[in-house]
Specification:
Two copies of one chain form a homodimer. In chain A, 35% of the residues lie in helices and 25% in strands. In chain A, helix 1 packs parallel to helix 8, helix 6 packs across helix 7 and helix 8 runs antiparallel to helix 9. At the A-B interface, helix 7, strand 13 and helix 9 of A face helix 7, strand 13 and helix 9 of B.
Chain lengths: 299, 299
């Protein structure tokens, strides 16, 4: 199935215990489409400013990402984010978010994208996500990501979006926040009542699970003793998951399990380097090797 | 292989959001031997006072636990513990611990136990655990549990014990505390350098993993939307794990994975009821049913 990935393309300045990077490539749409590109030929919708480095567009194109929907607005600046990861790496402190070109953004969907059967709405305002979704003819599978910021400031818009999607993917803390409970499984169960057929909860180093009314699938994380830069881990997870689902063409238990397994592995490869430094050199065979290794670790 | 399980037999008074119980059956040795009894015929070493209810001895015997090593000291009182679980159930607040009959306790090992090939040293003072271990002829597999209290107050004695065991099983927070690091995998790696060939880290609702120099196996937890009483979850996990390993007779990857899988399931059955109320009625077929269900959930 054809996959449209929608999300930000950004410049990230960040610091982790392993070093720092300034204005490196980032953004939920970039990480997600890159991760999906190992499994399918994703169509990217995003927007950048005149300061965008065209080499990054070529990097995505080189991975097989369809960049027709990557809009460049010369008069604006690309989104910018600055963050610091403290020693424990589990939480990131955002120091600066400059939305820039995303201010007042209305996504432009190329005609050639409108028949997309899978849509991934990356971490972006629920209103903007809804605007994009309304441009797609008859999507069969729509999955959205979200984050604490939108849960806190745009709850009603987010709840409206949830009525129009098939799956929601989010972090454990975000799930609890959205469902207003301290229990993760209860949170997932409550989210299912707001519209989505399934919810995928990402638990960082503890893995992830997929829950629907009648199904539950869980995976541990891939054991990494050194995490260099967790930025984009969740977007890469979601992108790879969508890529596998688009490639499989169904939501059978086998396809869902495969999606969780590959998402875990692809995400683990991403966080072994800053920005996309490690990720951009990953080959599909490397993914298969790690998947094989991971399978041996699972009970 | 024959399995000796060593740990406390106690009266527990506890309160969870689902209710309360006074002087109910508890203790690490009780939970562990009960859990092991689904897979093997464990030999229990423990001590109780004159206030011990002989029906509890019969309960264990009825499950196939060899209770020859359950010493009754009529002049002393059974260990007593009182705790409260707050709403999130993730941490327990201990209100009272009366060690009673365990004060100055030197374990007595029946002659018929001295050829035990597997030994599980439940959550008990490392000095008492070492004393017991010295009574066993030639154990092939010795695994110890420990807890924050002994890590804080008897670190050197614990480190001495670690030089004489094959495996350590403990909670994630305890592993970090023992290894003095905030990173769980690093903690496990450091613990391996103190003596044990393998370490098993229990992560509560996030599952568990087994790490040795060259191996890593991980399992998610069984998804329970209602946990009635988490008391004994870790002991039941360890006991079932030891029972499966004793039944398997080796530490092949298949045996270790099976041990983690069954330990997860047995532990999940235990915490669905207060004390051993649910556990005492569990049948092996019920375990197999849940194992089959759990396998379908794993990627």
């Amino acid at each position: 199935m054809s996959l449209l990935t929608f999300g930000s393309a950004a410049y990230d300045s960040l610091e982790t215990p392993f070093g720092r990077r300034d204005h490196s490539l980032g953004g939920s749409g970039v990480y997600a489409s890159f991760a999906a590109s190992f499994f399918t030929r994703p169509r990217l919708v995003s927007v950048v400013g005149g300061d965008w480095n065209p080499e990054y567009t070529e990097l995505l194109r080189g991975r097989g990402v369809d960049v027709e929907g990557l809009e460049v607005r010369p008069s604006a600046k690309t989104m910018f984010w600055r963050g610091v990861y403290p020693v424990d790496m589990n939480h990131c402190e955002t120091l600066v978010t400059e939305t820039n070109v995303l201010d007042g953004y209305v996504p432009v969907v190329p005609e050639s994208y409108k028949d997309s059967s899978c849509v991934f709405l990356g971490n972006i305002s629920p209103l903007v996500a809804a605007a994009l979704l309304s441009e797609i003819d008859k999507p069969r599978l729509v999955v959205a990501d979200t984050m604490n910021y939108y849960i806190a400031t745009m709850r009603s818009e987010l709840l409206e979006l949830l009525r129009h999607i098939d799956g929601l993917i989010l972090n454990e803390d975000e799930a609890k926040m959205l469902a207003e409970t301290n229990f993760t499984l209860e949170a997932a169960r409550k989210i299912l009542k707001t519209g989505p057929r399934f919810v995928v909860v990402k638990r960082g180093e503890y893995g992830a699970f997929w829950m629907s009314d009648r199904e539950f699938y869980a995976t541990p994380s891939y054991p990494l003793e050194t995490v260099v830069d967790p930025t984009g881990a969740g977007d890469a997870f979601a992108g790879a998951m969508m890529g596998v689902l688009a490639e499989s063409g169904d939501e059978s238990p086998a396809s869902v399990k495969k999606a969780l397994l590959y998402a875990t592995v692809v995400s683990s490869l991403n966080i072994e380097g800053f920005s996309l430094e490690r990720f951009r050199n990953v080959r599909r065979e490397e993914i298969e090797e790690r998947v094989a290794k991971f399978r041996e670790m699972l009970v």
